[in-house]
Amino acid sequence: MPMTIIEKILATHSGRERVVPGEIVDVEIDARVARDFGGANVVQNLAAHGLPVADPAKTFFTFDCNPTGSDQKYAANQQSCRIFARENGIRVFDIDSGIGTHVAIDQGLAWPGSTFVSTDSHANILGAIGAFGQGMGDQDIAAAWSHGKVWFKVPSTVRLELAGRPRPGAHPKDVGLALLRHFGANGLLGCAAELYGDYVADLDLAGRITIASLATEMGAIILLFPPNGNVMEHCLTATGRQDLSPVMADPHADYAALHVMDLHPVRPMVSRPGHPEDVVPLDEVRGRKIDSVFIGSCTNGRYEDLEEAASVLRGRRVAPGVVLKVVPATDAMWRRAMAAGLFDVFKSAGALISNAGCGGCAAGQVGQNGPGEVTVSTGNRNFAGKQGRGEVYLASPSVAAASAVAGFLTDPEHVPETPAVFSRGGSARPAGPRGAEAPGRKRPLVLKGRLWVILKDNIDTDMIFHNRHLAITKLEDMGPLAFGNLPGWEDFPQRAKPGDIIVTGKNFGAGSSRQQAVDCFKALGIAAIVAKSFGAIYERNAINAALPIVTSALCDLGVEDGEEITLDLVQGTILRHRDNSVVPAAPWPDVQVATYQRGGLLG
User: Fold this and answer.
1) Cut 0.85: pTM above it
2) In the sheet that 351-353 helps form, which strands lie side by side, from edge to edge?
3) What is the pLDDT of residues 209-239, one digit of tens each?
4) CATH architecture of the domain formed by 446-597
5) CB 19 within 8 A of CB 3
6) For residue 448, which of 549, 568, 566 has the smallest C-alpha distance?
7) What fold characterizes domain 291-414?
8) Which of 159, 209, 401, 503 could form a disulfide with 312 if both were Cys (CB 3.0 to 4.6 A apart)?
């Protein structure tokens, strides 16, 4: 019986002569991948169930979500995966490699007709080379690692005929967005789709990857491209194998539906913020003022995409106030772009170039935007909050680059001689200094409170307020993080009460200049900190923030948690209520008193 491409691949990998849609089969997986996103959970699942790794040679880690290791949780997950890999002989494509699906295509982990699973929801990009790729959850990947197989329901196949060619100035991203507009978020739900037509037959690998990467946004299982000569040559080189042949659908295969789409009307397209499928011609949003541009992602991070953007940027600079960020898909693409001089073009235009990886789709990475920020991105998703807290328009690299130069949404044919600039005024202003006191209020110079005693010297600012939280700016969000990296004191925010006093040893607040290490105690209502000495910057920050700090050797006198004391800040005395003894402290100088009374340096 004739079969479609996906039916042939699944039949071959399940030891069957044929399979039919709706049938559930156990599929042998050729490449079993976990990323830094989800990888640590895969390892935990294996450990929790005592499962071995069936075939380390077919098992891989790809660290592409956080290639900078800048997030502490990602860094911890990556390291736990590295340790597991060393113990089990698993290859790691580490933070210098790039996006795992692209690495798989370029380094021969996948080939036409092969099967590939990953913790990446866009693993179906492998359809670009006529392979079966699927994103799966942590338990599925753990099962694939342990057993080499996963169950899968054979999907129906839809045949897509793309007739004609798009208008001049339209690129594969525009064709992909036009398909997304046509099918919407669920028009291909649960289906595989095969693409045909003269345009498809001539499409290079980068263009196929761009369109294939939008399958998930249409609800499709996968978009499959029958491999052409260029794709086969690429895969033969990548794998080093000469026995590869493409898997093609049989002439009379049974398709669930046939869709014919005319490409002649396709022009530069844009997806409006919030919904990838909300696609309109660029003309409908042309002129929208923008703040930033991101060029990269698994959709448009290959060399050809970077070259497309560079052709627009060459000899130009980004508009004043606009930020341009470029993230190549893989290290090989990064090196090729640099060797070809594309980096000179980007840097001359005023761009930031990052190391290879996923970029803006992963929280905390290059490409994220802030509240109110309007971004043009070459990615495949613009869900609210996905690439930051601003608005994200999806577009091709050429539209993204042209918009960066113009300062507003446009294409290369309509870049003005003079870019748009931001108007002055209209920016939100902060309500007032953090922790500011009511005008005219006198602050007490004698303080009474309950003690928390930390008999430790050199408590640094990372122990007090870790650098992974440095982006936090709201005072009320800082309190719960105080001492979050000080062993044994992580629960301090839950135990402390307003009016409490901290007593500790030498050099409290050593290290960074971060103000949050002071403000976190203000947020908790801590009345004062008594230490034998303070880090120089910390001392200034505390004084300027009107947080009472007192220098005294009180910690050497056997004080205990819960004991009560009274501090006289001006006289420099500490009264211990337990025995009415008086302990000397450094009296405050006039400048500290004055700063404190007016609520801080800026009060």
Assistant:
1) no
2) 279-281, 269-271, 391-394, 374-377, 292-296, 323-327, 351-353
3) 999 999 999 999 999 999 999 999 999 999 9
4) Alpha-Beta Barrel (3.20)
5) yes
6) 566
7) Aconitase; domain 3 (3.30.499)
8) 401
